[in-house]
Amino acid sequence: MRSLEPWVESPLATFLTESDARLTLLMTGSGQVVAQHGFTHALDVMAAAALGAAIVASTDALASVLGLRAFHALHHQGHRHGVFLAPFEMPQGRMIGLVVYGRDTSLGLVQLFFDRLVSELAAAAPPGEGKKVVLPQDFEHELHASLRALFGR
Amino acid sequence: MSEDIRVMTAQLAADPTSLVFLPLGEALRQRGQLDAAEKVAVAGLSRYPDLADGHDLLARIVGDRGDFEQAFDEWGIALRLDPKHVGAHKGIGFLYFVAGDLEEALHHLETAGAALPDDDGLQSAIARVHESLASRAQPEEDVPAGAPPVQDPAPAEPVDMEGAFRGMEGAEDGLLLLDNKGRCLTGGLLSPEGVDVADVVAAHLAGVAQEASRAVELLGLGAWHGLTVQAPGANLQIVAPDAESVLLLAREAGMPLGRLAMLSERAAAAAREWLQGLS
Amino acid sequence: MSMEYREALESLTRIRGVVGGLLVSREDGLVVAEAAMDGVAGNAVAALTNALAGRMQAAVASGGFGDPSFFHLHADGGTIAAAPAGDELLVVVIADRRVNVGLLRLEMLRIAGSVA
Question: Which of A49, A110, B267, B275 is 20 to 30 A distant from A4 in Cα terms?
């Protein structure tokens, strides 16, 4: 497991164990990876996170165009794996969960335990610091801090 | 054929759902026509599987034939269906007496005796059990002074590693005890084709038990006691004798599920005793 | 919910002791149709029972005993029962300890046959 925030580790580990998912990424609404757990070695984590965030943003826009409320979860089912994407609100701002799972579990279990993950993250999160405003001159610093934490540099 | 049997047979033939199968089966049993009695009882129970009197009848029939194990099972089912069933208490009390478990025998016979105070035979049986219990309990004062000290009891027999279910039906091919990591401990399991499937099924079963535990925990149902499964090739019962083991009982597909549950309780008790002997 | 599914679930929930009846997709463990009392988490019952059914099927099939047609998990606080309805659906019931399991089993097998 790699994470920027230690308080996500226990809920995330529990989620992966209970859901039998292959891997899980937690990221900010803009696609910055906050934590990853599971079989991630073969994965371009940052690209997957960025694309996942983009899909969620696109779907939000689609819902708006259609006059619908935002979708609370997305699911793509492949031949051997499924991908589950769900945004949720935290004191620190919007986060997105991206879950990849195989045929030894099910979408029902993934959804069930993802809801619990969100509750446990909300309970474990430190008191709201308010949304941290990332100024452009801090953005590159934040990005490099993420990379160092995730890749151990 | 006696007239009453003839009449009851005609009644049953006219209406197979009639409860006349009970007195008919009993009449045939009393005449020693045990095969005919068993057929009548089994047919009746197939329509009324929850009828305690039917299980009591079948128990008496197979008991007359000397199949005490099946008689025990049938009376056990009768008691589950009707905890106050006098016939079942009498019958099962008798079996406990034969098996030497006098305390259990007395409990069941006295329960029956309370409902039938005028049954001389039953009251005599109760008195006999009391006598047996009394003669078993030798007070220490009876030992004469200067008598040699009582020798230490013979050392406990070593645990029979292969015999947790020795003597039980299915010990070799339909009773499997495994640890919670999916490894066989004792017993055996054969597929309907006679292939040894103990290891592969044990491996899967540990996961089943874990999944069952998770389900009941997350749904707030407390601890689970058993898992009954009906399949084309067998009826199966899965129980957890203790926190670290899982027991599978597999029987032919036609076995009544209630009876399966009874058998599994006995097997679980045997498994617990065996496991305690190991520790 | 289709009329067929509605009627099937109503016949289950009429059995004393039943607190929830569901039709669950075996593929993904999601609720297809549901009739449950307040306080019953249908999605959790569906997902967890489907997972148990999957493991059970693997265990029983590995022994050469075929695919289960019915199973029943009994616990301190109640019972869960399930019967596959074809390859796609699972009939699931959650009940309290009063339930007549014999009657429940017969009704579930009948429904499994009709909705498969």
Answer: A110
